[in-house]
Write a structure and sequence with these properties.
It contains 9 helices and 8 strands. It is α/β, with parallel strands linked by helices. An 8-stranded parallel beta sheet has the order 1-2-3-4-5-6-7-8.
Length: 273
Amino acid sequence: MVIDTHVHFWKYNKQRDAWMEDMKVLQQNYLPENLTQILSRNRVDGCVAVQADQSELETHFLVELAKTHSVIKGVVGWIDLQNENIEERLSYFSQYPVIKGWRHVVQGEPLDFLRRKNFKKGISHLQQYGYTYDILIYHYQLPPAVEFASSFPEQKFIIDHCAKPDIKNKDIHEWKRLMQRMAKLPNVSCKLSGLFTEAAWKEWSPADFYPYLDVVFESFGTDRLLFGSDWPVILVSGMYVQWKSLLEKYMENYKEEERQKVFGDNAIQFYNL
């Protein structure tokens, strides 16, 4: 099985999706029927649908899509983890086994967000339901993120998009140091996704990504890395086939078993698909 651990679906809404302002290609509907052929052409068997909007409505939207599209093997939804009634909401959503975990768009929050008591209280309830948590941050938010992930040694975390390193400016040293620290935490995995949009859009060359891939492969190893495309956001800077083949090329000298882990087995295990 090959699993893409990071795709988004939406019905475009100008007010809600203001973040797409400079990304014309994203300003339209992107639904499973737009992705199915792309997955099949790239020999991908299934995907994990990840929230793009911060509302429970979004979570319901993804759950409904999963009911009618078998290609969606799991959902990472949104829930207000800071809410006093978090236990009641988690209990309510536990009726949908397709929900595997949760995410908050921390990249848009102040630097101290992951230290907030209410947020951490919400995170502390995830493990009893077997839920994962996707950490979406920029590279400069890594210091509080390392501290945050180490506060919950039993909670399964995954870093989205390798913590968005500044590939465009070839800035690597501080990111590398912090990712090495993050990788020392055995409860943290990392997604090989979202890097095209951190490079110069459509002006990158495969070599731009290799130093960053070296860091995460050396730090996390092939047991804790998961392939993801970040479709359709990837279209801002490149094509699905380009990212998947770049990773395949990077891993061409790895054992077949290790490639299988990164492209599918780890996803099945991490998200309990």
